[in-house]
Give the backbone structure.
Amino acid sequence: MAAETTPSAPAPVVSAAFAETAVAGDIRVVSASKADAQRWNVFLDRQATVSPWAHLAWQTVLAEAYGADCRFLVAEQEGRLAGLLPAYVVRDWLGRRRLYSLRGGLLADAPAGLSALLAAAEAIPAASRLMAVPAGSEAPGWQARPRETLVLPLASSEDATWRGLRDKTRNMIRKAEKSGIAVEADWRHLDAFHRLYALNGLRLGLPLHGRAFFAAVARHLGESAVLLTAWRADRPVGGMLLLLGRGTALYPWQAADPESRNLGVVQALNWQAMRLAIARGLPELDMGESQPGGPVHQSKLNFGGRPRPLLYLARPAGEAGGGVAASPEGWGERLERWLRPAPLALRRWFAERRLRRGRVV
């Protein structure tokens, strides 16, 4: 399949199963497969910090749970990896292709590797592209979209980390314990977690992952994924999926029973996530992106989270290499509002399919 050419790369060629482009004469980008797991991990071992999103296993998770068109790429230079890009293609509500990197994004040892991978991303036919890259990266022709996440520093011991929490936070954790809330780490509670997660998402009007997605995470990420469920009197009242990387842990999905929030269930889940990260020797817990000024962002600040800059590079539709015009924004949100009076089962069915039309992870 011939791909579009751009001024920044010498005529990359992409097919459904293979992508390759030469940049600066000595770098090529090729598709990654399961056979590349060892050298993929060797590259990650060279990085000081590795996001859980960088695992090659996500390729299998996305393909198995969603049948996703995964484009996990590696940049090779003189026989060794110089960078990697885990990405996938989805189709929007009008059937137009959109390319996203995983949230961990593009990793490269040097600017040449970053440029090579972005050139390969430009060569993949898509109406728009959104790549997470290291903060401070530059790429001509791409729009910079700065964001931030909130990161909670962890001391080397539970006691020292506990002393670093605010009095109010410690009191809420104690309140959860006195209320009989206990947190367990066990994938056997997936059904209980997913019911809470789905109800929470439907209340907020969010797209939802189906149970099959979380089951695939459990199968393929192994010890890097921990499911936490909070219980009170044999009733699930909260849950969290904790992902463990190298030098960092993060929790992309969390849910709580609204009636139990004032009992400290969220704080109890966060504290257990912190304890697990400390036990793995990880110095930080990434609390995730949130809208500055919003209640979720403020609660993370109150817990001790510190802002850290993130950077996305975008190739919107209509620009060089951008392809056809993008579909109107907000279709999923408008359809969700229209369906709010509908039965819960129909809303859940739609919410799980809505997620497939945009950024999945």
Remarks:
- The radius of gyration is 21 Å.
- The chain is about 35% helix and 30% strand.
- The chain has two domains: 13-147+310-327, 155-282.
